[in-house]
Amino acid sequence: MPVYADLGVKRVINAWGPMTIIGSALVRPEVIAAMAEAAESYVDVIELQRAAGKRLAELIGVEACYVAAGSAAGLAIVTAALMTGGDQARVAQLPFPTSGMRDEVIMQRSHRNPYDHAFRQVGARIVEIGHAWSAFDWELEAAIGPKTSAVVYVYG
After folding, report:
1. Is 147 part of any domain?
2. What is the pLDDT of residues 30-50, one digit of tens each?
3. Which of 36, 52, 65, 81 has the fewest CB within 10 Å, making it most exposed?
C-alpha cells in the first residue's frame, strides 16, 4: 500500500488476531463507505453518540452501549461510571475521587497489563490479589469491601 510505503513503514502479517499494536482489525468495504459518507457532514457528536449506542444495543440485545475510541478509553469510561454511579458531582471530582467514592478495582496479579493506566487515569486504585501464577477465591472475597467498584478479569 503506497500510504505505508510513503511513510517508510513495513506491513506485517497478522498471525495474532485483532490487536491494537498491529492496527487492530481490517475494515470491511461497507464500513469504509459509511465512514466516507459520514466524513462529508457535521453533526452534534453527543446526539450521534446516543443514537449509535442505542442502535448497537438493539443489534446485540443489551440494555445500553457506548462507543469508545479503543480499549483503554472503554475501560476508563466504564470505571468512571462504576465509581460515580452517574452522580455528576462525583464525576466532576475525577480523577481525584473523594474519600466516600468507591475507587478500588480488584485485579489478579497475573492479570496486570499495559492497560492498567486506563483504571488509574480516572482515579481508581488497583487492589492486587494472588500471585503471578494464581489467585484463590478467599483472596478475592477478602479484598471486596465498601470501596470496591469493580473486579477486573483480563482475558488473553
Report:
1. yes
2. 999 999 999 999 999 999 999
3. 36
Number of domains in the chain: 1
Mean pLDDT, to the nearest integer, of 85-97?
A: 93
Which cell numbers hold the place of 117?
493506566
Q: Which residue has the cell 475501560?
A: 75
CA–CA separation, 145 and 15 (whole Å): 41
- Phi then psi for 105, rounded to 5 degrees? -120, 130
| Residue 138 maps to a domain | yes
User: What domain range includes position 137?
Assistant: 71-152
pLDDT tens-digit series, residues 48-82? 999 999 999 999 999 999 999 888 999 999 999 99
Domain presence at residue 59: no
Give the helix/strand (H/E) hosting 104.
strand 104-108
In this structure, is residue 58 part of a structural domain?
no
Residue 1 grid coordinates: 500500500
Residue 100 Cα distances to 104, 119, 132, angstroms: 11, 18, 31
pTM greater than the 0.85 cutoff: no
Return the C-alpha cell found at 149.
467498584
